[in-house]
């Protein structure tokens, strides 16, 4: 750990600190006793920041700070689920396609290219509209994850096509290893570094996608997320009423979350480049 920290660049260190901050705010802070922020009229409406309500209250009598914490936790959870689905499925399909070749390569790439060229936003709008605002976190994440695996599969396939020509793969074949065993024991370790970077980027993209749907009014109506919190404030004319303590925190936190994850991704990539001595 000491060696890692000494070799980590400034961006990676800032990204790690940002990640820890968001995880603590989203998953440790909610463990402290508090009133459910989803319930209406738990406090007087439209309060300014005070000793009890640190960020004030909404037009519905909700504590903005605890609503922000709950929204951050759900947004991160959605991002993690979508990134897990996209990275895992993408790696599996990409490795199978690139390593097996032939019919399987053509069939899997036709499927992959179909999801690559389909415009995801109109499909997501249609699917979330059919759910009529009743989807939970898991269903919403599965919907977003439907389009999260295609590009990773394409990238992993190109890596597999290169790796399968290496001498150690031929050695594994002559040693009696089957295709699946060779993929997971010989090729997969070379993909881990890329997979981690893709995972972090997929979290960022998933949060952005959910926020876009929420601002369009298509995210589950009762699910607190950063995007939904912005949408709720917009519906209640928080901007026109200059309730900056309501509309401001989710916007600022979303920006900081994006910057933190971006620094983490780019910093990690720089660290891997220096580690390889390039």
Note the main attributes of this structure.
0% strand; 278 residues; single chain; MetI-like fold; mainly alpha; 11 helices
Radius of gyration: 22 Å
Largest sheet: none
Described by the principal axes of the CA atoms, the overall outline is elongated
CATH topology: MetI-like fold
Question: Under the CATH scheme, which architecture would be assigned?
Answer: Orthogonal Bundle
Number of helices: 11
Extended strand count: 0
Strand content: under 5%
Based on secondary structure, the structural category is: mainly alpha
Average of the residue pLDDT scores: 88
> SSE order in H/E notation?
HHHHHHHHHHH
User: In which range does the helix fraction lie?
Assistant: over 70%
Task: Compute the number of structural domains.
Answer: 1
Looking at CATH, the homologous superfamily is MetI-like
Q: What are the segments in which pLDDT stays under 50 over at least 5 consecutive residues?
A: none
**Broad CATH class:** Mainly Alpha
CA distance, first residue to last residue: 22 Å
């Amino acid at each position: 750990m000491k060696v890692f920290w000494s070799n980590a660049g400034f961006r990676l260190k800032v990204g790690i600190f940002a990640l820890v901050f968001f995880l603590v705010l989203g998953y440790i802070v909610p463990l402290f006793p508090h009133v459910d922020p989803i319930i209406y009229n738990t406090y007087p409406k439209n309060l300014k920041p005070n000793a009890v309500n640190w960020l004030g209250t909404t037009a519905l009598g909700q504590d903005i700070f605890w609503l922000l914490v709950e929204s951050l936790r759900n947004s991160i959870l959605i991002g993690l689920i979508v990134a897990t689905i996209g990275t895992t499925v993408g790696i599996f399909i990409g490795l199978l396609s690139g390593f097996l070749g032939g019919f399987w390569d053509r069939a899997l790439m036709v499927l992959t290219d179909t999801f690559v060229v389909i415009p995801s936003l109109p499909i997501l709008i249609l699917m979330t509209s059919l759910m009529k605002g009743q989807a939970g976190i898991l269903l919403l994440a599965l919907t977003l994850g439907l389009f999260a695996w295609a590009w990773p599969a394409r990238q992993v396939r190109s890596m597999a096509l290169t790796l399968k020509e290496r001498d150690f793969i031929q050695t594994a074949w002559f040693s009696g290893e089957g295709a699946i065993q060779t993929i997971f024991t010989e090729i997969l370790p070379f993909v881990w570094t890329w997979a981690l970077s893709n995972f972090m980027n997929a979290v960022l993209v998933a949060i952005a996608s959910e926020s876009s749907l929420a601002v369009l009014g298509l995210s589950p109506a009762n699910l607190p997320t950063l995007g939904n919190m912005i949408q709720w404030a917009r519906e209640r004319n928080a901007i026109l009423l200059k309730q900056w303590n309501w509309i401001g925190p989710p916007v600022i936190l979303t920006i900081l979350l994006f910057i933190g994850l971006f620094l983490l991704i780019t910093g990690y990539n720089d660290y891997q480049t220096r580690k390889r001595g390039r």
